């Protein structure tokens, strides 16, 4: 096989891959598996990210993850339920009234409780890092282009907010500096108004001019439709809405144990079909093409498949050996290594090597 | 042949407004014409432009009576998106209209919405990249481009849809002279080679007038007249220097390009003395001194150095914005800071004021804040803070002071001046300014009345015109009575009348012993107001000297009158007028 030309992978492939890993992380509390996921994600991101600004944001997600773990630990020390045998240290405790039983403010800290809290934090952090990886690898704006045409108002709102939000920070900085020019250093509630008003005004102006620019460049334009088409088109929002409601109830039925089976998979399927039909109908008048569309070929399939492999591995492992998917905390023990899950996660490292390199 | 754009008895009234923004407009712009829309600020130029593609009233709200048709399509039944294949719109701030992240994607965006086949898109993107000379930028993130490049990308991004009409709302107002030239060259090429109809609004008429086929004049009351450039300019209420000179000298037909004017100006050049009569020396407390002393001058020099900066460095991360600038600003002098977009002008100003970051270097302000008792002699004012027999106080570094004390030393009007405003009315803003400056009630209002007379006190600052808003912010900063006044691009979006009002306000400040530094791209404005010009490039000062020397020597920076009358060192029509009245020569000599 000749080495592939450098190109960007289809954004959906990266998102499927990242969400797969995030789901795998949510299924386990085993620190070895979580560490493995983090390692795989970091490896692929360093190998396949571009030099774009959104790719640099990966660091921020890692920092956010670390912050989540840390705050989970601090919360445990402050108000967590402290159980276990291995005493670590003692914090001054407060005796709460009986109605607040179960909340321990301070008190003796045990290794077991602290570890369990840390693992919970780590699991959430791993999921955050997975989403961060998707953001770093796939340009979020390119993903938005895959939005169906009937959702154009939502599309406008999303694009405007994605574009204007980063400018908000810059706007705040500018206004804060301008406040100093008026000689105001003091904070407090009054200053909120002084900063918020110009910033909001600025953001609103920018949003409006962006929306106007999109409109004047033909965003959401429809070709002339026949009256019959228009009638069908007007039914579209109801169809999609009913479909989404049906799908939500169906999903709930599927996940909950004590609902009649008819409310599960069949309703979910029906709802999804209805939603897709609605979106299709609504988007019929909107015609768009894509400039240099991202192709979907074997690297995309591979990437998406390895992400799914991580999920499947974790599900299979939790059926084969549910004990090994989490770390024994009470009593404390070494975590096992579920081979199936680990293999699935390791497979997800393949896109880091087998996909074409991103363009420089 | 049907005109490309036709206005039929169009009246536009915005919601909540008593008077219409446009009144019974009848207008026809033929295919392939370049129509230049002129008028005072706030006169409804943008409304006229917006009405062409249906943005007014579909997006802005308000009522439009009458009919606007573009190539046969009525904007009543066609929303802006339905006209996207006919009309391309480029706004004042290109960044505000960018939807994607890179040059190539931005060029393709409009075509994607029009559902053009991918092969056509590939071809048109390549053609447009070449047409506008931006092929080397194709993969660059839009945020990393210079202002001129961004504006050309914005024009390219609407051109790829092959529109028959191009609407440009002040496309060069934020650009340096070179960037503006690039953009205008691209526009004229479109008109001449592709037959695109262009409707262009511009405050700095001198940049575009020579290319225009039709002038559309919008009066403040919303009445629109149109006609051939030379005829319209003879009576217009906004006139570039070249037109003023032509009117003054009585040239007919009125020349509109420097080339034509030079041919007409031969008798005038012969009649003018070799050196213009200097501006009234009494208006300036300190004579203008050659720039040689500027870089060598020290704090203890004989001239009253209002502000001395030594080796100022400003870095933003890896980017060196200001690379070791040494600069002395003198009291009673107006200094203009010029240079490309991104040359470090704003960073330098903020660093001098002390609020912005300064990586290294020193700034010393020897002038002392006027105390609460404003007097003509600043030394007596300074004595309020110390014993009367004290020697002149030690120079202060504004960065060491609190924000409140800092602004009593150096006042800065930033580029986006409206950031300073947050209250509901002009009156409240003024009262707040008096309070925060510990000035007597009414100080700010008095300054404002002098700078821009007749602003209703209950007006919301947002509803002010660009010039009035600038005057308000300047008045707020002057309330603290700083001896040093810095203005960052104050001329942006100002019409000729507002600019000349600003020019006389700045001259007055300098005459009162203040030190004024302003950054601008507007050579004509510099020619009227500045005593001295400092040119920056890449964070360094590359030229520093009296306005006449710096500005006349440079082809990019020379004002129109200087180009017309070269080699005579006249910069403005006022120079000519003053000299001629003094020597008592008849100006209308054939």
Summarize the structure.
Chain A has helices at 11-26, 31-48, 53-56, 58-79, 111-137, 140-144, 152-181, 189-216, 227-255, 265-282, 298-320, 339-347, 351-354; strands spanning 87-94, 105-110. With 360 residues, chain A is mainly alpha-helical.
Question: How is this fold's topology laid out?
Answer:
The complex is a heterodimer of chains A (360) and B (590).
Chain A: H1 11-26, H2 31-48, H3 53-56, H4 58-79, E1 87-94, E2 105-110, H5 111-137, H6 140-144, H7 152-181, H8 189-216, H9 227-255, H10 265-282, H11 298-320, H12 339-347, H13 351-354
Antiparallel strand pairs in A: 1-2
Chain B: E1 5-13, E2 22-29, E3 34-38, H1 45-52, H2 55-58, E4 63-70, E5 73-74, E6 87-90, H3 94-97, H4 103-113, H5 118-131, H6 147-159, E7 165-169, H7 177-194, E8 197-201, E9 214-218, E10 224-227, H8 229-233, H9 241-249, H10 258-264, H11 266-271, H12 292-296, E11 305-316, E12 319-330, E13 334-339, H13 345-353, E14 360-365, H14 378-382, H15 403-409, E15 410-413, H16 426-436, H17 443-451, H18 466-479, E16 484-488, H19 496-511, E17 515-519, H20 523-529, E18 532-537, E19 540-546, H21 547-553, H22 560-565, H23 573-583
Helix pairs in contact in B: 4-5, 4-6, 6-7, 16-18, 17-18
Keywords:
heterodimer, A: 360 residues, mainly alpha, 13 helices, 65% helix, globular, B: 590 residues, alpha/beta, Rossmann fold, 2 domains, six-stranded mixed sheet, 19 strands, 35% helix, 20% strand
């Amino acid at each position: 096989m000749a080495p592939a030309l450098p190109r960007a992978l289809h954004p959906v492939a990266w998102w499927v891959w990242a969400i797969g890993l995030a789901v795998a992380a949510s299924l386990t509390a085993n620190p070895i598996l979580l560490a493995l996921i983090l390692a795989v994600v970091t490896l692929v991101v360093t190998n396949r990210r571009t030099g774009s600004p959104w790719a640099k944001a990966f660091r921020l997600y890692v920092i956010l993850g670390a912050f989540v773990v840390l705050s989970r630990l601090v919360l445990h020390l402050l108000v967590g339920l402290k159980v276990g045998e291995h005493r670590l240290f003692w914090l001054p405790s407060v005796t709460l009234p009986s109605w607040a039983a179960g909340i321990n403010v301070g008190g003796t800290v045990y290794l077991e409780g602290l570890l369990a809290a840390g693992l919970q934090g780590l699991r959430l952090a791993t999921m955050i890092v997975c989403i961060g990886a998707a953001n770093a690898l796939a340009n979020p704006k390119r993903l938005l282009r895959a939005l169906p045409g009937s959702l154009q108002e939502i599309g406008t709102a999303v694009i405007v907010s994605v574009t204007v939000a980063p400018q908000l920070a810059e706007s705040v900085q500018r206004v804060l500096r301008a406040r100093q020019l008026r000689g105001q250093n003091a904070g407090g509630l009054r200053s909120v108004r002084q900063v918020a008003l110009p910033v909001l005004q600025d953001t609103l102006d920018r949003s409006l001019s962006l929306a106007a620019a999109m409109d004047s460049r033909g965003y959401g334009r429809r070709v002339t439709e026949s009256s019959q088409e228009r009638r069908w088109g007007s039914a579209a929002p109801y169809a999609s809405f009913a479909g989404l409601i049906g799908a939500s109830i169906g999903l709930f039925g599927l996940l909950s144990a004590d609902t009649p089976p008819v409310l599960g998979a069949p309703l979910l399927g029906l709802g999804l079909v209805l939603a897709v039909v609605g979106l299709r109908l609504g988007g019929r008048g909107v015609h768009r093409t894509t400039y240099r569309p991202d192709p979907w070929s074997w690297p995309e399939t591979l990437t998406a498949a390895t992400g799914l492999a991580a999920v499947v591995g974790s599900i299979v492992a939790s059926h084969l050996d549910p004990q090994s998917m989490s770390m024994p905390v009470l009593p404390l023990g070494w975590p096992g290594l579920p081979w199936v899950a680990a293999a699935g996660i390791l497979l997800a490292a393949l896109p880091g090597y087998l996909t074409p390199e991103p363009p420089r | 042949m049907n005109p490309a754009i036709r206005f039929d008895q169009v009246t536009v009234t915005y919601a909540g407004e008593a008077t219409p923004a446009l009144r019974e407009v009848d207008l026809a712009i033929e295919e392939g014409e370049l129509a230049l829309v002129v008028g005072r600020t706030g006169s409804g130029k943008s409304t006229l432009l917006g009405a062409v593609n249906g943005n007014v009233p579909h997006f802005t709200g308000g009522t439009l009576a009458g009919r606007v048709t573009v190539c046969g399509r009525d904007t009543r039944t066609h929303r802006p998106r339905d006209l996207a294949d006919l009309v391309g719109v480029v706004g004042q701030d290109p960044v505000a209209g960018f939807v994607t992240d890179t040059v190539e994607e931005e060029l393709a965006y409009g075509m994607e919405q029009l559902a053009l086949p991918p092969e056509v898109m590939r071809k048109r993107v390549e053609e447009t990249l070449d047409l506008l000379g931006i092929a080397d930028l194709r993969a660059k993130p839009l945020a990393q481009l210079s202002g001129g490049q961004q504006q050309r990308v914005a024009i390219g991004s609407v051109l790829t849809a092959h529109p028959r009409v191009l609407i440009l709302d002040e496309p060069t107002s934020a650009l340096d002279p070179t960037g503006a030239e690039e953009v205008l060259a691209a526009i004229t090429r479109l008109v001449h080679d592709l037959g695109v109809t262009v409707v262009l609004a511009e405050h700095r008429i001198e940049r575009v007038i020579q290319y225009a086929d039709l002038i559309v004049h919008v009066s403040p009351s919303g009445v629109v007249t149109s006609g051939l450039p030379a005829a319209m300019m003879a009576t217009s209420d906004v006139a570039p220097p070249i037109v003023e000179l032509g009117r003054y000298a009585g040239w007919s037909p009125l020349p509109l390009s420097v080339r034509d004017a030079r041919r007409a100006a031969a008798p005038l050049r012969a009649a003018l003395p070799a050196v213009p009569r200097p501006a009234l020396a009494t208006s300036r407390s300190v004579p203008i001194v050659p720039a040689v002393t500027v870089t060598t001058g020290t704090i203890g020099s004989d001239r009253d150095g209002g502000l001395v900066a030594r080796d100022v460095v400003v870095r933003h991360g890896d980017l060196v914005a200001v690379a070791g600038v040494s600069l002395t600003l003198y009291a009673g002098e107006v200094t203009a800071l010029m240079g490309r977009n991104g040359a470090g002008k704003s960073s330098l100003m903020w660093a001098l004021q002390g609020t912005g970051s300064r990586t290294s270097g020193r700034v010393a302000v020897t002038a002392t804040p006027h105390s609460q008792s404003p007097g003509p002699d600043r030394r007596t004012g300074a004595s309020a803070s110390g014993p009367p027999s004290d020697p002149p106080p030690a120079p202060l570094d504004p960065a060491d002071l609190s924000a409140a004390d800092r602004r009593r030393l150096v006042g800065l009007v930033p580029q986006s001046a409206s950031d300073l405003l947050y209250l509901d009315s002009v009156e409240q803003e003024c009262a707040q300014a008096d309070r925060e400056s510990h000035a007597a009630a009414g100080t700010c209002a008095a300054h404002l009345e002098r700078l821009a007379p007749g602003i209703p006190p209950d007006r919301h600052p947002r509803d002010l015109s660009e010039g009035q808003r600038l005057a308000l912010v300047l008045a707020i900063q002057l309330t603290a009575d700083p001896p040093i006044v810095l203005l960052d691009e104050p001329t942006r979006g100002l019409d000729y009348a507002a600019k000349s009002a600003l020019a006389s306000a700045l001259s007055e400040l300098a005459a009162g012993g203040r030190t004024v530094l302003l950054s601008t791209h507007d050579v004509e404005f510099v020619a009227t107001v500045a005593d001295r010009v400092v040119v920056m490039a890449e964070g360094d000062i590359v030229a520093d000297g009296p306005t006449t020397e710096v500005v006349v020597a440079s082809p990019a920076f020379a004002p129109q009158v200087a180009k017309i009358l070269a080699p005579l060192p006249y910069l403005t029509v006022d120079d000519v007028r003053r000299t001629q009245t003094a020597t008592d020569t008849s100006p209308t000599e054939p």
